[in-house]
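Field reference: sequence -> structure
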Amino acid sequence: MIEARGLTKRYGSTVAVDSLSFTVESGRVTGFLGPNGAGKSTTMRMVLGLDRPDAGGVRIDGQRMTDFATPMRSVGALLDAGYLHPTRKAGDHLWALAASNGLPRRRVGEVLDLVGLGEVAKKRVGGFSLGMRQRLGLAAAMLGDPKTLLFDEPANGLDPEGIQWMRRFLRGLADQGRTIFVSSHLLTEMSLIAEDLVVIGQGHLIYQGPVGGFLEGAAKRWVTVRSPQLEAIALALRDQGAEVVPVAGGSIDVVGPDAVAIGELAASLGATLHELSPRQASLEEVFLQVTAGAQQYRAGDGPPPPPAPSGGAPS
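Structure field:
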């Protein structure tokens, strides 16, 4: 379990993290979400003892990071897959880490096989793809067989098969009772992996709890309806106060009544239903809605229009 209480970190006049408190439970995958500049990386570095908080503190299974005599046996982390020296061989890199924490050499081969890199143990990492570096970073995090693991964008650079493998990998670790804390911008993927969420914006906690609770509290819900008698159904729904939105392709989205109520209404009208689909906003849509006021960096609406042709006024 990770327990953060009142974490605060300032860089000059900038407050990166402000009185942030949250808990990451064991045996579950907890997603760590926030816009760019929200303070996620700074928070993870404070959890690992790499940055010192100006206020507050973190306990991992009741201890500070500095209390662990051999940290890799208790906590594993992958924050940056690009830190590797390009001329070092994969196996040698892991052996140096293992030796520093008193871990047996056999663990090098075990973790390389675990992440699918057993055949490249003697290859120099300078020739590795980003996805291979990510896997090597995961192997390093697993060297001490730790109970607590922190990953920052672990699927970065992985192909679709690798992302699917990562999903199974993280879920399997949680099923073993480990504490898994994962930061990612792949919100669709996070919705498939995480059971809990910690969402922050501008250094403040926005939400902590189950993924379902996050969606329940903010997600828009509607029912998509298709029918040969669509106009009659839409008119009756509007008469009852429902919001009815026409959709391209010959259907309507209905906000208000649930699918059961709409089905009963259609039956009373003698209407045939070709589709009656309850829908809900995705994790990505809810995230953008909830963090709309906490975006530090905003993109424009799109590229500027092309310049008008020379020799005449724009049409």
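Note: The chain has a mean pLDDT of 89.
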